Amino acid sequence: MAAQLDHELIALAASSLSAIPDNNGDHTVTAAARTSNGLAFAGANVFHFTGGPCAELVALGVAAAQGVLAKDITTMVAVRRDEGKIRVLNPCGRCRQVFLDYNPDINVIVLDETGVQRTVPVRELLPFAYVYGAGGETVEEVATA
């Protein structure tokens, strides 16, 4: 069952993006994170050709700098500008993996294939995800089966 859509969290991410001038290419995405007790944190991406951090990771860092770890985050959302409007942006693969690694119970607000905003568990965004240290069959076991 999908969690309820957190409109206030989307609004926080959107207001953070609205504070950045439209023509600023260094910060094109903002994100917001909510904790189980209602605290919210926002962050902006830092675009750089060397691969700057995504807004979602900055929001997690802002929360950590205030004593809130990713294990306490319940919901994440990112937004971007699209033809003058601010819209929800689905997280990239790296962010999905970070969410899963830091807190596999995080819910993420996304746009589904029809463009509708939904809240889904991060596990749904990464089926067959890489799990560090997970066991499984060895190559030899598969080859001899």
Automatic annotation (TrEMBL):
BP GO annotations: nucleobase-containing small molecule metabolic process; pyrimidine-containing compound metabolic process
SUPFAM superfamilies in UniProt: Cytidine deaminase-like
CC annotations in GO: cytosol
Span of domain CMP/dCMP-type deaminase: 2-133
Gene3D superfamilies the UniProt entry points to: Cytidine Deaminase, domain 2
Domain of life: Eukaryota
Molecular function, one GO term: cytidine deaminase activity
Family: Belongs to the cytidine and deoxycytidylate deaminase family.
UniProt name for this protein: Cytidine and deoxycytidylate deaminase zinc-binding domain protein
